[in-house]
């Protein structure tokens, strides 16, 4: 379980493909605090630490994860938003997210907002998936590359988020441009409500 409050950006230092899986080796400031079997969200994707050496750690993404996320597009040197799992004795500063990315979306617009930036993202509309809660609502929550954000201007297949300068500078939002592919996780509460309505 995660909150969508990114701790920092890790740097991808190596990638190894094994059949349909990819091992990603990364470096961050708290590598020495990690342990094998620990869960860490990478651009919003929950991955397990499988090994550690030389002040780096390695996680494995399987085909299902690669198909639903932008992890397969990563290249050596890329910055990845990371967050360790929530402590249950603290404040929930973002919103409850699982680290189970639902799909990718493409940035289709950016506009200035007096120092902040509005980013608009688009994803293919699927009526059956929308009935299961895979959509956004005005002032609802959405996770973009692991960042907990508030939705504005939603349509059936687009939504906009406002990014303050601090968030843009301290996450990989500073690399996002029109055409960039991001990971999105829809609000888990919306999915449960949608499911209850079908029972």
UniProtKB/TrEMBL annotation:
Pathway: Cofactor biosynthesis; riboflavin biosynthesis; riboflavin from 2-hydroxy-3-oxobutyl phosphate and 5-amino-6-(D-ribitylamino)uracil: step 2/2. Transmembrane segments: none annotated. It comes from Segatella oris C735. GO terms for biological process: riboflavin biosynthetic process. Keywords: Repeat, Riboflavin biosynthesis, Transferase. InterPro entries: ATP_synth_asu-like_sf, Lumazine-bd, Lumazine-bd_dom, Riboflavin_synthase-like_b-brl. The keyword Repeat applies. It comes from the Bacteria. Lumazine-binding repeats lie at residues 1-95, 96-197. Its EC number is 2.5.1.9. This is Riboflavin synthase. PANTHER family: RIBOFLAVIN SYNTHASE, RIBOFLAVIN SYNTHASE ALPHA CHAIN. Residues 1-95, 96-197 form the Lumazine-binding domain. NCBIfam families: PRK09289.1, ribE. Catalyzes the dismutation of two molecules of 6,7-dimethyl-8-ribityllumazine, resulting in the formation of riboflavin and 5-amino-6-(D-ribitylamino)uracil. Pfam families: Lum_binding. It catalyses: 2 6,7-dimethyl-8-(1-D-ribityl)lumazine + H(+) = 5-amino-6-(D-ribitylamino)uracil + riboflavin. The lineage of its organism: Bacteria, Pseudomonadati, Bacteroidota, Bacteroidia, Bacteroidales. One of its GO terms (molecular function) is riboflavin synthase activity.
């Amino acid at each position: 379980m995660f909150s969508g409050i990114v701790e920092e950006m890790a740097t991808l230092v190596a990638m190894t493909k094994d059949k349909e899986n990819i091992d990603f080796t990364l470096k961050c400031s708290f590598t020495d605090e990690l342990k094998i079997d620990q869960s860490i969200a990478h651009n919003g994707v929950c991955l397990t630490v499988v090994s550690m050496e030389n002040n780096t750690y390695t996680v494995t993404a399987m085909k299902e994860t690669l198909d639903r996320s932008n992890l397969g597009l990563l290249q050596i040197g890329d910055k990845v938003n990371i967050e360790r799992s929530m402590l249950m004795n603290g404040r929930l500063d973002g919103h409850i997210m699982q680290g189970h990315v639902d799909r990718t979306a493409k940035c289709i617009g950016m506009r200035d907002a007096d120092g902040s930036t509005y980013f608009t993202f688009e994803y293919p509309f699927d009526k059956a998936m929308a009935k299961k809660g895979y959509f956004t609502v005005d002032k609802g929550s959405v996770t973009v590359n692991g960042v907990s954000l508030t939705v504005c201007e939603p349509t059936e297949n687009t939504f906009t988020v406002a990014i303050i300068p601090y968030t843009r500078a301290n996450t990989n939002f500073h690399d996002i441009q029109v055409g960039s592919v991001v990971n999105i996780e829809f609000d888990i509460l919306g999915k449960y409500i949608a499911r209850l309505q079908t029972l």
